[in-house]
């Protein structure tokens, strides 16, 4: 089966955005947790390390999911593979 240039470009962009978002996820999940004690400044009246552990990471995860979904919708339309409504 021959894969067209359009599909190859689609998958290149898909893999690139997935890798970028996974790198952000890794930094937020592991690097922030590793350096949490060093993040000793107040953020809205709470220690920043507590805020990132309790609420900040969840907000970033939701933002990652939202961005991926909106980016992929635009990418689907750009390459003509969008779902029919």
Your description of this structure?
The chain is mainly alpha-helical and 85 residues long. Helices cover 73% and strands 5% of the residues. It has one domain (5-79). It has helices at residues 5-34, 48-79; strands at residues 42-43, 46-47. The protein has a two-stranded antiparallel sheet. Helix 1 (5-34) runs antiparallel to helix 2. The longest helix has 32 residues, at 48-79. The model has no long low-confidence stretch (mean pLDDT 85).
Tags for this model:
single chain, 85 residues, mainly alpha, elongated
Secondary structure layout:
Blueprint: H1 5-34, E1 42-43, E2 46-47, H2 48-79
Antiparallel strand pairs: 1-2
Helix pairs in contact: 1-2
Output the number of helix runs: 2
- Straight-line distance between termini: 28 Å
Q: Topology as H/E string?
A: HEEH
Major β-sheet annotation: 2 strands, antiparallel
Low-confidence segments, ≥5 residues, pLDDT <50? Answer: none
Q: In order across it, which strands form the biggest sheet? A: 1-2
**Mean of all residue-level pLDDT scores:** 85
The tally of structural domains comes to 1
Strand content: under 5%
Structural class: mainly alpha
| Helical coverage, percent range | over 70%
- The radius of gyration computed from the alpha-carbon positions, rounded to a whole number of angstroms, is 18 Å
Principal-axes geometry comes out as elongated
Q: How many β strands by DSSP?
A: 2
What is the structure about, briefly put?
The protein has 85 residues and is mainly alpha-helical.
């Amino acid at each position: 089966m021959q894969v067209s240039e359009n599909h190859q470009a689609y998958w290149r962009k898909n893999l690139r955005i997935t890798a970028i978002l996974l790198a952000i996820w890794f930094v937020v999940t592991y690097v922030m947790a590793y350096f949490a004690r060093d993040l000793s400044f107040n953020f809205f009246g709470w220690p920043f390390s507590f805020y990132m552990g309790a609420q900040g990471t969840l907000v970033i995860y939701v933002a990652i999911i939202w961005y991926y979904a909106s980016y992929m919708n635009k990418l689907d339309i750009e390459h003509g593979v969008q779902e029919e409504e």
